[in-house]
């Protein structure tokens, strides 16, 4: 009996340590999504609050169909009205006569409104369809907000009870939210900068991401090639799971579709939704060039607001980047952020003829550190949408000469 207890304790601690390690990101140690409630006025039976959601993750966006925020009311609160967002279910409001609340659910789930929402239902920073850009890509688009009128609640900062059990759902999952904590009331400055007001009460919830919780298997892989070697180093086999007849589909001979519509992924040896290919195109005395291609093997998913993070010691010397937007020195001198350009390639389409995006990079050589031998020209780490991609074994890297040469 004692040995069983010890084994259970050991297993539990191992799971906790694994999940905590997976939640920590060395390239973005402070990344999180912070949800803040600001009570801006009291009502006869509750309060009106503005809820803001900030994505402080440097390179992990929330893609379409967007976020869903949930919680459990502490007492018997109801939502009288909302602007900029809506509850997915009204629930049982039969006890109310006359005015009917927007939602009577004990555990409401809130979603953002769409961009074409009428202006009289909007507030600032709302109505993006739940899509949030990463902070590193576009801080102005990494914010979402809505207004909520709560009834059957406390009417002072001493009688209000905070909601609990917050949840944040997003495509791919992986978010865990902590408890709500009361903080110093937010200060608001008027547009002319001449007056400052204060929230009646403010509380904050912090949600963190874990790749392990989002998916036990990786979701992307990296393949490599170079101009000097005719062979391609593919993604390792079974990088994201092993292939079987039920979880992938082959292209039809005509190339016009797939033969099993219920499946999601195209059949490959690596079985990853995303493949990042790094090809060394040329090597000259003063510079060298790379072509980066991202291919989507998912037949049912478009990656909106996608991001690519690459770790390589020469990326801070990139002199030209085509097609992609580029931000060097993301967290360290050897890490850069790439993302698509708006209305051009910021959406990575589902598997098919248009299911890829690519960019050409030109990098200036530093005579003190440049050395194309021993795999130096290939990335150390690659992240797609914040998830670490599987790299090939260094022993399988294409051979590269150390001296400069023509294509």
Automatic annotation (TrEMBL):
It holds the Pfam family COBRA. It is a lipid-anchor; GPI-anchor. It is found in: Cell membrane. Residues 1-23 form the signal peptide. It comes from the Eukaryota. InterPro entries: COB_C, COBRA_pln. GO terms for cellular component: plasma membrane; side of membrane. GO terms for biological process: cellulose microfibril organization; plant-type cell wall cellulose biosynthetic process. Residues 219-253, 256-398 form the COBRA C-terminal domain. Keywords: Glycoprotein, GPI-anchor, Lipoprotein, Membrane, Signal. Belongs to the COBRA family. PANTHER family: COBRA-LIKE PROTEIN, PROTEIN COBRA. This is COBRA-like protein.
């Amino acid at each position: 009996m004692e040995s069983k207890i010890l084994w259970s304790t050991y297993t539990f601690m191992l799971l906790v340590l694994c999940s905590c390690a997976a939640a920590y990101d060395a390239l973005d140690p402070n990344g999180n999504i912070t949800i803040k409630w600001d009570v801006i006025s009291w009502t006869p039976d509750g309060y009106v609050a503005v809820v803001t959601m900030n994505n402080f993750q440097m390179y992990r966006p929330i893609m379409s169909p967007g976020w869903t925020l949930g919680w459990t009311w502490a007492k018997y609160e109801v939502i009288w009205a909302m602007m900029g967002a809506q509850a997915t279910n009204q629930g049982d409001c039969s006890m109310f006569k006359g005015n009917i609340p927007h939602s009577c659910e004990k555990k409401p789930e809130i979603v953002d409104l769409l961009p074409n929402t009428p202006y009289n239902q909007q507030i600032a920073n709302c109505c993006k369809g739940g899509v949030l850009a990463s902070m590193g890509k576009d801080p102005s688009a990494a914010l979402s907000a809505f207004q909520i009128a709560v009834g059957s609640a406390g009417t002072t900062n001493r009688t209000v009870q905070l909601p609990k059990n917050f949840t944040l759902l997003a495509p791919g999952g992986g978010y865990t939210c902590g408890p709500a904590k009361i903080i110093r009331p937010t200060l608001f400055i008027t547009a002319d900068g001449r007056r400052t007001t204060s929230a009646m009460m403010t509380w904050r919830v912090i949600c963190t991401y874990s790749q392990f919780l989002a998916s036990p298997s990786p979701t992307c892989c990296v393949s490599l090639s170079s101009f000097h070697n005719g062979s391609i180093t593919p993604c390792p086999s079974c990088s994201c799971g092993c292939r079987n007849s039920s979880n992938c589909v082959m292209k039809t001979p005509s190339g016009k579709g797939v033969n099993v519509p219920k499946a999601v992924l195209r059949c490959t040896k690596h079985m990853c939704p995303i493949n990042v290919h790094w090809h060394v195109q040329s090597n000259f005395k003063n510079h060298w060039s790379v072509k980066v291609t991202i291919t989507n093997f998912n037949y049912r998913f478009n990656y909106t607001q996608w991001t690519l993070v690459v770790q390589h010691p020469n990326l801070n010397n990139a002199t030209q980047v085509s097609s992609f937007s580029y931000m060097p020195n993301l967290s360290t001198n050897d890490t850069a952020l790439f993302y698509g350009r708006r209305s051009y390639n910021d959406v990575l389409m589902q598997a098919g003829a248009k299911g890829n995006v690519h960019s050409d990079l030109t990098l200036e050589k530093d005579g003190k550190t440049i050395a194309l031998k021993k795999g130096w020209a290939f990335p150390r780490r690659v992240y797609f949408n914040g998830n670490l991609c599987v790299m090939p074994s260094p022993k399988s890297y294409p051979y590269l000469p150390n001296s400069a040469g023509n294509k």
